[in-house]
């Protein structure tokens, strides 16, 4: 008896105290206090990066001076500097495959220059899609080896041009495959080191480029261009995979040139660079949350033929488009852009979806120039590197609402029967902006609506208004309420209710707080993330998949951040896993660090809000932007409490990453959900007509192509470490059974 | 002193365990529910928790009243959850599924509790 009493007491105490632990990992209320004195005072005019003579920061953990030399390994191939060239001397670009792909090809990341993700193929239809079978599987060979942290999410979309399927591995090896068998025709290994992996080992794709200078039949007439995690721009011959000797230094350009102090993994590239009128435009991600004076988010143009530097768009040096010389560098901490960019040869523009200035959750140290262009679409003139127009999707963003999606180009029906060249810009907020791509003016109405301001952080007021795209269906659910809390039982539901009530929350744009957590919904995973949208220009149907994944954030004082061991990646004490992008961050150089988790029950691993967590929506763009159909995306089969798969076919709607393809056959192909399935959906009804289980998470944009008279559907089942789906190195390609006989 | 827990059958032990579980859940409800109410949230958990603790204690003591208190709490839970979210299966799942499963066990325990009460009454008569 005595023993059972004891057990009961222990169990009782454990259970009963659980509510108290709802905020255990967060700073207790009242621990806010005033920031330590060793950090910049936002009230003084200190929003400029340190000079060469600025004394070193006094906080316990701090990154080196921006003038410190780059760490060994940052310039991975030890490439010499590249010279500059006058943009006016860029030769006339030859006609590109991506401008008008052959009907069976998929010539660019989003199919063609419009990035519509639409294929005119129609062999596979809603009637026969249920017969799809695996045609072949290709292993890229890139996955975490023993002893390596799982930072993998390949996110790759192959391109198909002529007789080849071209793709990259998660660590940037480039390969050409036979599109009917998956047999490797060539493979070019670039020997990227594990340390170069930033937040994620991803390579979304490669770019196909036809030279105007090298005659047909010569090596490097057709080339594959790739940007890498370790900041190289590489061109190889499409026929052989050999480096192109006339590009850069034997086929490679070092993009760390002019970046100043950095370490491997701080800046990296994961998207295929667009080539616009002969200019290869590159952007890069800068690891979030590290330090205010992180490396620059500069956007640069290079000659696609020679790899020579053409221009830079450096936000805080708006009138200087040249490469820094000597010990100088591009201005630090400026908004970075990590999403795939879209080129526009006709207008001579590249549409850059931008992110946030470094130190995402604290904006007092940002310059007015940065505030104008962060979390925006910026149309850069590829001749000069100057913005022609800017459209901002979140003002003074402190919610990590950087744009992850690629802009899609399409023609909108205009008032006078003419079509307007338009650009569709999805955002993490679930607001989809439709802009005139000639001047950036909204085609569908955009309203500036009051937003919670000024907020509570001293010296860092929030914008009094924020833009809302009122002409498009919002890809979000209403603001959360206590009764939206969910769980397996009333016990975890109660836990989540307490968590909800303990946080600051006044709806979207709840300002950051230091005394207690705040709820961020929409979360930083979207709404729409990097999967972007697909658009069928014939039916006028726009396909969007999106997330309902709130976050639970709290600013912490420098003292508390030091106690938590938060430090920037370039701190000498930094150990991998000690805080990185998308999670807790030091935000060194500001008064605060940041603690971020999903808004979940950390004991069961289940989200606190009610399902669905992911949706797919079809919008009729030709008839008033009405929702044609909308339903949860992803089943509960591979998800459940404590990460256990439930095996349930219930279409609960899971978080999703990765986009869709729409075809003339009337089908939408999409993986993305965390149930590790690929499915075919009837474009007009939303009915799922086929699904198959992948060997890993389908967090990648699928693509479709024709080879040997048959239509194929390919998806990289690379998985995603943050989405907690199984990582694999397999590209899976499906086709209808071959009826040769 | 005669040992009242002496010759317990398996079902009687299970009933005791069930009572303890209900007390634990009730305590969680009371403590968490009090916090939630103080934060301006629903008072359902606090009220329900008090009833559950009473229910569990009576069941541990071998009183049929405990079972009926539980069924009362369940009725309250259903009424409250239908008021809060309506006939939405997804939202009723966390609120009512577990409590209703537990109610099946509680109903099964009623004959056991009755037997315990009868035995106690007989012993009192001796």
From TrEMBL, chain A:
UniProt cofactor(s): pyrroloquinoline quinone
Superkingdom, taxonomy of origin: Bacteria
Range of residues in the leader sequence: 1-24
Ranges of compositional bias, category Low complexity: 27-47
Keyword Signal attributed: yes
Any one GO cellular component localisation term in the record: membrane
Annotated region (Disordered), positions in chain: 27-113, 443-472
SMART domains: PQQ (SM00564)
Residue ranges constituting the Pyrrolo-quinoline quinone repeat domain according to the UniProt record: 106-713
Keywords: Oxidoreductase, Signal
Family membership: Belongs to the bacterial PQQ dehydrogenase family.
Protein name: Glucose dehydrogenase
Species of origin: Gluconobacter kanchanaburiensis NBRC 103587
TrEMBL record, chain B:
Membrane-traversing stretches: 12-37, 43-61, 68-85, 97-113
UniProt keyword list: Membrane, Transmembrane, Transmembrane helix
Protein name, entry field: Glycerol dehydrogenase
Organism: Gluconobacter kanchanaburiensis NBRC 103587
């Amino acid at each position: 008896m005595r023993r059972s009493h004891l057990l009961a007491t222990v169990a009782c105490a454990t259970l009963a105290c659980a509510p108290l632990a709802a905020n255990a990992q967060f700073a207790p209320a009242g621990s806010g206090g005033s920031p330590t004195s060793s950090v910049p005072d936002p009230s003084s005019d200190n929003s400029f990066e340190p000079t060469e003579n600025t004394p070193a920061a006094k906080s316990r953990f701090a990154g080196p001076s921006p003038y410190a030399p780059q760490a060994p390994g940052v310039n991975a191939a030890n490439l010499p500097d590249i010279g500059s060239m006058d943009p006016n001397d860029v030769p006339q670009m030859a006609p590109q495959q991506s401008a008008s792909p052959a009907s069976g090809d998929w010539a660019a990341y989003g199919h063609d220059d419009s990035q519509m993700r639409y294929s005119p193929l129609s062999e596979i239809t809603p009637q026969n899609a249920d017969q799809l079978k695996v045609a072949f599987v290709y292993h890229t060979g890139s996955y975490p080896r023993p002893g390596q942290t799982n930072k993998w999410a390949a996110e790759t979309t192959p391109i198909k041009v002529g007789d080849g399927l071209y793709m990259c591995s998660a660590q940037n090896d480039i390969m050409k495959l036979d599109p009917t068998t998956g047999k490797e025709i060539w493979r070019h290994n670039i020997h990227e080191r594990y340390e170069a992996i930033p937040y994620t080992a991803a390579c979304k794709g490669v770019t196909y480029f036809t030279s105007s200078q090298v005659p047909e039949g010569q090596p490097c007439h057709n080339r594959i261009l790739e940007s890498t995690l370790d900041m190289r721009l590489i061109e190889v011959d499409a026929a052989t995979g050999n480096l192109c000797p006339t590009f850069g230094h034997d086929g490679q350009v070092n993009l760390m040139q002019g970046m100043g102090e950095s370490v491997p993994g701080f800046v990296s590239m994961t998207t295929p660079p667009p080539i616009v009128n002969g200019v290869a435009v590159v952007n890069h991600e800068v690891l979030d949350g590290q330090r205010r004076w992180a490396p620059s988010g500069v956007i640069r143009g290079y000659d696609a033929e020679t790899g020579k530097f053409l221009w830079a768009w450096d936000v805080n040096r708006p009138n200087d488009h040249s490469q820094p010389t000597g010990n100088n560098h591009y201005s630090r901490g400026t908004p970075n852009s990590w999403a795939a960019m879209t080129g526009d040869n006709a207008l001579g523009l590249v549409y850059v979806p931008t992110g946030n200035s470094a130190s995402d959750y604290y904006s007092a140290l940002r310059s007015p120039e940065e505030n104008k262009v962060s979390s925006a679409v910026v149309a850069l003139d590829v001749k000069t590197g100057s913005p022609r127009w800017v459209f901002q999707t979140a003002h003074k963003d402190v919610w990590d609402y950087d744009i992850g999606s690629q802009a899609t180009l399409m023609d909108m029906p205009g008032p006078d029967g003419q079509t307007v060249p338009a650009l569709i810009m999805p955002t993490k907020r679930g607001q989809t902006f439709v802009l005139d791509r000639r001047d950036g003016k909204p085609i569908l109405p955009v309203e500036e609506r009051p937003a919670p301001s000024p907020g509570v952080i001293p010296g860092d007021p929030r914008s009094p208004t924020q833009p809302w795209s009122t002409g498009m269906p919002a890809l979000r659910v209403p603001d959360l309420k206590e009764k939206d809390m969910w769980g397996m039982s009333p016990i975890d539901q109660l836990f989540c209710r307490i968590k909800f009530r303990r946080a600051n929350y006044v709806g979207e744009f709840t300002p950051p707080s230091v005394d207690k957590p705040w709820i961020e919904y929409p979360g930083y995973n979207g709404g729409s993330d990097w999967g972007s949208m697909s658009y069928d220009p014939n039916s006028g149907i726009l396909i969007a998949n999106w997330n309902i994944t709130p976050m639970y954030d709290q600013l912490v004082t420098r003292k508390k951040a030091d106690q938590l061991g938060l430090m920037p990646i370039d701190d000498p004490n930094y150990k991998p896993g000690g805080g990185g992008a998308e999670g807790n961050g030091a935000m060194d150089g500001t008064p605060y660090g940041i603690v971020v988790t999903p808004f979940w029950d950390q004991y069961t691993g289940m989200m606190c809000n009610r399902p669905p967590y992911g949706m797919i929506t079809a919008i009729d763009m030709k008839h008033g932007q009405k929702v044609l159909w909308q339903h949860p995306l992803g089943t509960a089969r591979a998800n459940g409490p404590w990460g256990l798969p439930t095996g349930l076919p219930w279409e609960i709607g899971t978080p999703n990453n990765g986009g869709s393809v729409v075809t003339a056959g009337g089908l939408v192909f999409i993986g993305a959900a965390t149930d590790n399935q690929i499915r075919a959906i009837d474009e007009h009804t939303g009915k799922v007509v086929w699904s198959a289980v992948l060997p890993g998470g389908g967090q990648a944009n699928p693509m479709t192509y024709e080879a040997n008279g048959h239509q194929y559907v390919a998806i990289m089942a690379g998985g995603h470490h943050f989405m907690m789906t199984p990582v694999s190195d397999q590209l899976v390609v499906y086709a209808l059974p071959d009826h040769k006989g | 002193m005669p040992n009242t827990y002496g010759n317990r059958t398996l079902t009687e032990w299970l009933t005791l365990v069930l009572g303890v579980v209900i007390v634990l859940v009730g305590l969680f409800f009371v403590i968490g529910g009090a916090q939630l109410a103080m934060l301006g949230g629903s008072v359902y958990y606090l009220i329900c928790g008090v009833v559950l603790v009473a229910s569990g204690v009576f069941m541990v003591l071998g009183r049929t009243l405990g079972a009926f208190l539980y069924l009362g709490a369940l009725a309250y839970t259903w009424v409250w959850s239908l008021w809060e979210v309506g006939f939405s299966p997804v939202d009723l799942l966390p609120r009512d599924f577990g409590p209703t499963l537990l109610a099946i066990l509680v109903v099964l325990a009623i004959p056991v509790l009755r037997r315990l009460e009868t035995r106690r009454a007989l012993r009192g008569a001796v």
